[in-house]
Give the backbone structure.
Amino acid sequence: MAESGTPAAFGVYVHWPFCLSKCPYCDFNSHVRHAPVDEERYVRAFTREIETTASRTPGRTVSSIFLGGGTPSLMKPETVGAVLDAIGKNWAVAPDVEVTLEANPTSVEATRFRGYRAAGVNRVSLGVQALDDASLKALGRLHTAQEALDAVKIARGAFDRYSFDLIYARPDQTPQMWTAELKQAISEAAEHLSLYQLTIEPDTPFFGLHAAGKLKTPDEAVARALYDVTQDICAQHGLPSYEISNHARPGAECKHNLVYWRGDEYAGVGPGAHGRLDIDGRRHAIVTEKRPEAWLMRVEASGDGISADDLLNSEERADEFLLMGLRLVEGIDPQRYAALAGRTLDPARIALLREEGAITVDTSGRLRVTQEGFPLLDAVVADLAA
């Protein structure tokens, strides 16, 4: 369901699950394989799953494609081209489609980037993560800061649009250190930065180290100061936040991520991919098999790798819309929430959160989380959804 007056967006997410090594903070569905990956077999499986998914969602026009992972830049450009061709054969594709590929600075070379561009990729997102070598080593990254900056330079020459990620609130990081690093990053960024606070996720090596007291992250006060520095410096340099962790020059927002946050439809293709599809008037929450080899066998046997296909009821769909939409600086239209939930948000709760300075409601009725409220976003969403 698109916002009033805008055409419905439809995204396709393609998951390439392989990495050169597993980062100690990462809980994504990524796998290290020491034998070469059979890319031709995966292309056939991607193509088959795309065909099956498209048969369930006819008449859509793809507005964005995102090749994520894992490390999609480990794929040959021919593999990427074949996947994009399969999408183009099975759905209509918008003339201004955004096609993003995530790339790792260790796996970047000029010839491969030019190959991705020729295959149809028009935006690249680089996993830089830090701009000093000690931090990169601590984060388990295989590249140096100079290699990362070289990759950004290559991206700048190959693509009109590029972005890169950094992780902050790292061990021993001070606001002064982050200020200098962020200013350097902005000088290298054309239009978009993704800036994530380091979170300690269960079932990762960092979780065990943190629990044992061997990994100390900044306390709450320092983490908040680092967040405030992030907002202030990016805004001063023309890259204000448009989502809690994403900053862009006006008009340069990532179209694909907006599909998620605005509650639009997207297909998930590949091992461990998620999708949200409207079929016969119902919203389906779809998940595919996470293990790459098991996913392959499922697709080859039955045409898709789906491991769960759940129908969301009105309450679940409305809660998801609230959870995702309030991450955006643009906020949400409460009338759309009411249409999904079959009930309005509680005016008393809205009034209390406004009084506390956590949200605002503009003259059109649109509800937004304030900059002061964003660090407490989970609590704000829980309060509104109750």
Summary: The radius of gyration is 21 Å. The CA atoms of residues 276 and 285 lie 5 Å apart. The longest strand covers residues 92-103.
